[in-house]
Amino acid sequence: MSKASNHKLDIDNLDFKRIYTFEEFELINEQLKTHTLKIDGNPVNLFEFNEGKLLPMPQNPISKEAVACEISRQLCNWNVHTRQNGIITASQGGFDFDISGQRTIRATDVAFIPKNIYRSLDHQQQWTFRGQSFTPTFVVEVAVVQEGNREFNDLDKKFREIYFATGSSVGLGWLVDPKNKQIYIYRRRVTGVVYRTLHGWNNVDGDSILPGFILKVQKIDDTISQESSESSSSESDETIDCPKCNATFSNDYDFMEHYEDSHARKWHKGE
Fold it and tell me: Which residues pair with 49 in a beta bridge?
C-alpha cells in the first residue's frame, strides 16, 4: 500500500498552500468522483496539478460546457470525415505537460491528439498519468473574458507557459469567448516565440495542425441560443436512397448515421 493510501486526506479541508505528492493528487481526484467540494461558492470535482500544488477546476456552467461540446462535435465530425482517426478529449481529459521536469497535469476544454501519437502510447500512458509525458497538438479553452482582466491574463499565461511550453507538441490553440464573440488564436513561430492574434467572431480554420477543419461559429450561436428550433429529421413519405449501397431510409438522421458508419467511418488496418 502506498504512503498516500495510508495518509488520511480530509477532502473538505484541503490546504492549498501545502505541497502534495502526485499519489495524493491522484487519490484526491479519485475521491472527488463521488464527492463535491465548494470553493468560493463554486462546485469542484477535479484538480489540476502543478509542482505539487492543487489547482481547482470549478464545474462549467451549462452554456460554457455546451460550447465546448459543440466544438468537440464539429471536431469529431472532421476527424471521421477526413479519416484522421485521431482522439478528441473534453474538459476532464488531462495531460502531463512536464514543465522543466515537473509533473504538470492540465485539462483543456477540448484537445486533439493525432493517431500517430495515440497509437504510440503504452498501457501506462493510456490509462494513468504515470507514463512518459505526451501532449496534444491542438487545445481549446472556452471562457467569458475581457482582455486585461485577471482571468484573461491567467488563461493567456496558461497558453504561453503551459500549453506551448518547450517540448510540448501543441501547435495551435484557441481561446473561445462565445458571450463577447471573440476567438483568440495562439501559434508558435519557427523561432519558438508564442504569439496571439484576435480573430473576432468568424469561422476559423485549423491551419496545418487540423488540415481542412473549419470551426463554424454560427453553429455555436445556434447551440446556446434560447430561441426555439425544430429538427427536420421527422419521418416523411419520401425515402432516401444511399448513393453507395442499396439501403433506403425514411429520414435524414438515419441516412446520415448509416452513411457515416458504413461509408465515411472506415478505419483501415495499417493506417
Answer: 54, 105
Domain at 174, CATH number: 3.90.1570.10
- pLDDT < 70 regions, the chain: 1-8, 228-237, 265-271
Do 51 and 132 lie in one domain? The reply is no
Pairing of strands 104-107, 42-50: antiparallel
Average predicted confidence (pLDDT) for the chain: 87
Question: Are 106 and 172 part of one and the same domain?
Answer: yes
Strand partners of residue 182: 177
Give the N- to C-terminal CA distance of the chain in Å, as an integer: 42
Q: For residue 59, what pLDDT is reported?
A: 77
HSE-up (13 A, CA, CB side) for residue 202: 6
pLDDT digits (tens, 9 = 90+) for 119-149: 999 999 999 888 899 999 999 999 999 888 8
* pLDDT at position 164: 96
Q: Do 188 and 259 sit in the same domain of this protein? A: no
d(CA 106, CA 46): 11
What is the CATH number for 240?
Answer: 3.30.160
Q: How far apart are CA 151 and CA 170, in angstroms?
A: 21
Asked if residue 204 and residue 113 are part of one domain, the reply reads yes
Contact 72/90 with Cβ under 8 angstroms?
yes
231 within 8 A of 210, measured Cβ to Cβ: no
CA distances to 85, 187, 205, 213 from 208, rounded to whole Å, are 16, 11, 9, 9
**Structural domain tally of the chain?**
3
Domain encompassing residue 137: 62-224
pLDDT at 2: 43
Dihedral Cα 208, 209, 213, 215, nearest 10 deg: -120
